[in-house]
Amino acid sequence: MRSFLLYSRKGRTDSKFEEEKLVEAGRMDLVCRCIPAALWISHKARDDTKLFVNLNGPPRAPTTICFDGSKLVKVYVDEKMNARWIKKLLEAKYGKDWLDVKGSLVAKKSFQDIIKETKSNVYVLHEKGTPIEDVELKENPMFVMGDQIGLPGKEEGFALRKGEKISIGKNAYLVSNCIANLNWVCDQRGI
User: Fold this and answer.
1) How far is residue 8 from each of residues 26, 54, 78, 110, 135, measured CA to CA in Å?
2) What φ, ψ does residue 105 adopt, rounded to 5°?
3) In the 8-state DSSP scheme, what is residue 138?
4) Is the peptide bond between 58 and the residue preceding it cis, with omega within 30 degrees of 0?
5) What whole-number distance in Å separates Cα of residue 99 and Cα of residue 96?
6) Strands (E) located in the chain
7) Beta strand pairing call for 121-131 and 141-146
8) Which residues are CB-contacts of 86 (< 8 A; sequence separation ≥ 6)?
């Protein structure tokens, strides 16, 4: 199983945002674009992939949502539909333990909680990392990346205790494009 962990600095942790104003909701537009990039192939879901989205915006403690391709019930290709589903998840009565809401999980978990809990091989995406063509990716990779600003140094350092820094190029790409590219690489390598 491959997984992606997206750190969203300002993604709202409540449902008080409008689907038409996702940029103003802490760049929830970016989050909504990452969902199909991680979990969809043409006409079907990837049942070998998970996307963890760590939201750090107001008003609550950090919240993480996990979309699991093997359990998809309410995830869509459309940004607005994904935004509606995220709002429903954030309205649920969740705590520190994962709450299953129709196949998606939500919990008050920090970025570091997710890194601590994972049994995956961690790869932190960064322009200055080792080029991916020079990296022998191990089974069960977890690709860690930041939003349009990138990972905070503290969180990057924490993730690197458990993994290594890799790069898909010297340019900073849209995070949804990075996810699609990494899916392609894993597909080609049979991981």
Assistant:
1) 8, 6, 19, 11, 26
2) -110, 145
3) P
4) no
5) 9
6) 2-8, 40-41, 44-45, 49-55, 63-68, 99-101, 104-107, 121-131, 141-146, 163-167
7) parallel
8) 15, 28, 31, 32, 65
Instruction: Please list the pLDDT of the chain residue by residue as tens digits (191 residues).
Output: 999 999 999 999 999 998 889 988 889 999 999 999 999 887 788 999 999 999 999 998 899 999 999 987 656 778 899 999 999 999 999 999 999 998 899 999 999 999 999 999 999 999 999 999 999 999 999 999 999 899 999 999 999 999 999 999 998 889 999 999 999 999 999 99
Question: Distance between CA 116 and CA 172 in Å, rounded?
Answer: 27
Give the CA dihedral 71, 101, 84, 3, nearest 10 degrees: -40
Does the predicted TM-score (pTM) go above 0.90? yes
